[in-house]
Specification:
Blueprint lengths: L11 E5 L3 H14 L5 E4 L8 E2 L2 E5 L10 E5 L6 H8 L4 E8 L4 E7 L3 H7 L10 E5 L4 H13 L2 E6 L2 H11 L6 E5 L5 H6 L12 E4 L17 H22 L9 E6 L9 H24 L1 E7 L36 E3 L8 H11 L12
Parallel strand pairs: 1-2, 1-5, 2-4, 5-6, 8-9, 8-11, 9-10, 11-12, 12-13, 13-14
Antiparallel strand pairs: 3-4, 6-7
Length: about 375
């Protein structure tokens, strides 16, 4: 989308909604749009008359003073912007900023989508009863949240983890959704055990969805101060890269154009040198998916990279978002048409949204890629 075309002629630009996102991303938003606003608009008396970055905040009613069309850019999500703004200035153009919410990062600008448009654009729902999914690292964090969501949708699951007790406890909870749950106990860092799981009965057939979530991360280390641990580096690479590739390459032989398998690899855009063992493995997975994508697609398996954002888990106790914030973004691969090329899914773009708003955002971001979308996740 060419955001430089957001303004035409002599239209005046306003930012609406003076809050945390605007404060943190003001310069970034101005860079995307190409200029600063005439002023900031809000309805809070405590903000009216104050300046931010040299820009005055006025009450939204000031728009009635402009006879010519204006552009109003909002950072708010669920708010009847069209009703309020256009009741004051009917010729106003409405735009919204889209964010990766977990990181408070502005991604792009798009036209404001009215509620009635969202209903027309939302694809129809589907049922997943009888579909099979594999989830690695299923007993904690993101993997556990994914397992619950897929079970609720009707998927039969094979859950993979290192602790038989944790797997059994999880399986008991998932069976309330009346789906079949099978457990596989394995340490994915061990080459022998990884390949031994492929002989298990539940692995003797294909999957409709594979969620390669398992990963390990070790305590932070400082370059030049803490020694490099070969064991930690090798276990990270074995678990986060080798095992995930082995799983995808094993099950691609069960895939076909008639039965497409969607395989999701958890990635990260973190560049923290203190967690270099972890970040290097994610860079390796990214490289593999980009290089192997078309070969897998030819055989009937579509690869996706999923960046969940800065999620708070046992591995990342300082995360800024809860695990549930990865939905519905984490399930986008279920809805995308496999005949198209894979997008890089940033689940954090859809965090803190209602399902309706997330559908609206996703449909606009990935036009013409849709197959179906469930309405009950």
């Amino acid at each position: 989308m060419q955001t430089r075309n957001i303004r035409k002629g002599k239209e005046q630009l306003f930012f609406f909604g003076w809050g945390t996102l605007l404060i943190e991303c003001f310069d970034e938003i101005c860079s995307i749009v190409g200029s600063q606003p005439v002023c900031i608009l809000d309805t809070s008396p405590s903000k009216i008359g104050k300046y931010f970055k040299g820009v005055l905040c006025n009450h939204v009613s000031i728009l009635k003073e402009f006879d010519s069309p204006v552009v109003v850019l909002t950072v708010r999500r669920d708010w009847p912007l069209d009703q309020v703004i256009q009741s004051i200035n009917p010729s106003a153009q409405l735009w919204q900023v889209e964010f990766w919410m977990a990181e408070h990062k502005a991604v792009h600008i798009r036209p404001y989508c009215k509620p009635e448009q969202r209903c027309k654009m939302a694809p129809t729902g589907v049922a997943y009863s009888g579909k099979r999914a594999l989830v690695t690292g299923a007993t904690r964090g993101i993997g556990r949240a994914i397992a619950f969501k897929l079970s609720k949708l009707g998927f039969d699951l094979v859950i993979v983890g290192k602790s038989p007790v944790d797997l059994e406890n999880l399986a008991d909870k998932l069976r309330v959704f009346n789906v079949n749950i099978e457990q596989v106990v394995v340490d994915l860092a061990e080459d022998i055990t990884v390949h031994s799981i492929f002989t298990k009965t539940c692995f003797g057939a294909g999957f409709d969805l594979i969620f390669n979530n398992a990963a390990v991360a070790y305590p932070e280390r400082l370059i030049g101060i803490n020694k490099i641990s070969h064991e930690e580096m090798l276990r990270s690479y074995s678990t986060n890269v080798v095992a995930q590739i082995a799983i995808a390459e094993h099950f691609v032989k069960f895939a076909s154009q008639d039965r497409c398998t969607r395989t999701i690899f958890l990635t990260s855009n973190s560049n923290d040198h203190r967690n270099i063992a972890y970040t290097l493995t994610k860079a390796a997975i990214n490289k593999y998916v980009f290089d192997a994508f078309y070969e897998f697609k030819r055989r009937g398996m579509i690869l996706y990279l999923l960046d969940p954002g800065n999620i708070q888990t046992r591995m990342n106790p300082n995360g800024t978002s809860t695990v549930d914030k990865i939905f519905p973004g984490a399930l986008l691969p279920l809805w995308l048409n496999p005949l198209n090329n894979t997008p890089m899914i940033h689940a954090s773009e859809f965090s803190e949204q209602t399902l309706e708003t997330a559908i609206d955002t996703a449909v606009l971001k990935y036009p013409n890629l849709w197959e179906t979308m469930p309405m009950d996740v």
